[in-house]
Design brief:
Elements: H1 2-21, E1 23-27, H2 33-40, H3 50-60, E2 63-68, E3 71-81, E4 86-94, H4 103-117, E5 122-128, H5 132-140, E6 144-154, E7 160-163, H6 167-177, E8 181-184, E9 190-193, H7 196-202, E10 205-208, E11 212-214, E12 217-219, E13 228-232, E14 238-251
Parallel strand pairs: 4-5, 12-13
Antiparallel strand pairs: 1-2, 2-3, 3-4, 5-14, 6-13, 6-14, 7-10, 8-9, 10-11, 11-12
Protein name: N-acetyltransferase domain-containing protein
Domain N-acetyltransferase: 23-168
Organism: Vulcanisaeta souniana JCM 11219
Length: 259
């Protein structure tokens, strides 16, 4: 029995080596859409957001795929926030038949190198707290935790609204509490390093209540005057709670870019 198990293990290793030598990573093409939707539609019990987002990612030129013999086996999107020299990684998915073979790592390493070539200094991503394999991968690639977020549709709460230049001090105080990180939900769930000037270009009012609401990002418990999808640094009054997520960051070494 021991000998049979060893033979199976050797075969698995050889298959993995063969697969990785055949792996190609490139920008996503419109013709890849069908394959991507097919293996991402049921990623989670509730489905997945990738099938609804992939066409937009392709049109923006921000998505990458891992391909083996013309079969798409992995996908990832990278948003560049040049104002803050930050890249946001999202939607990394690997075909179920090709998981635990190093494809997710290879895809992430490729995209990290693309970020370096674009002069980006920091890369960030978000992982659901229950997804331990993704946490292990992120940590093994040099990412470290910088924020914990509670996500969902928040109930309205009593707030004071601040507009105009008076927002600046509120934003400054909020960023001090987050160590300079800001998140948003409008187009993507996205977090970045930020300055008060950057946040001032994104939102036109802030909310002061149980926490500080900077658009859809609440520093403290969810703080919004209307029912809204929110990312918050503390748990609170959600009408529909999605879950707890960990935000990671990695600092890039510009000298390590590969051709």
């Amino acid at each position: 029995m021991q000998g049979n198990r060893e033979k199976v293990k050797i075969i698995e290793i050889l298959n993995q080596v063969t697969i990785m030598t055949e792996l190609t990573i490139r920008k996503t093409l419109p013709s890849d859409t069908g394959q991507i939707i097919e293996f991402t539609r049921n990623t989670f019990p509730w489905g997945d957001y990738v099938p609804n987002a992939i066409n937009e990612w392709i049109s923006e030129g921000t998505a990458y795929v891992a391909v083996i013999k013309n079969h798409v086996v992995g996908v990832m999107n990278m948003v560049l926030i040049r104002e803050t020299s930050t890249a946001w990684l999202e939607g990394i998915r690997v075909h179920p038949s090709y998981r635990r073979m190093g494809i997710g790592r290879a895809l992430t390493e490729y995209v990290l190198n693309e970020a370096v070539k674009n002069g980006i200094r920091h890369v960030m991503l978000m992982i659901a707290d229950w997804n331990e394999p993704s946490h292990r991968l992120a940590r093994s690639l040099g990412f470290h935790e910088v924020l914990t977020l509670f996500t969902g549709v928040a109930k309205p709460s009593p707030v004071s609204i601040v507009r105009g230049e008076a927002m600046r001090e509120v934003i400054r105080n909020a960023l001090r509490k987050t160590n300079g990180y800001y998140c948003m939900t409008r187009k993507h769930w996205l977090c970045t390093r930020a300055t008060e000037d950057f946040v001032m270009t994104i939102i036109n009012e802030v909310y002061i209540g149980r926490g500080i609401g900077l658009g859809e990002f609440s520093v403290g418990p969810p703080t919004m005057p209307a029912k809204t999808e929110v990312l918050a640094t503390e748990n609170g009054d959600f009408e529909n709670y999605y879950g707890r997520f960990i935000v990671y960051e990695k600092e890039l070494n510009q000298a390590q870019a590969k051709a």
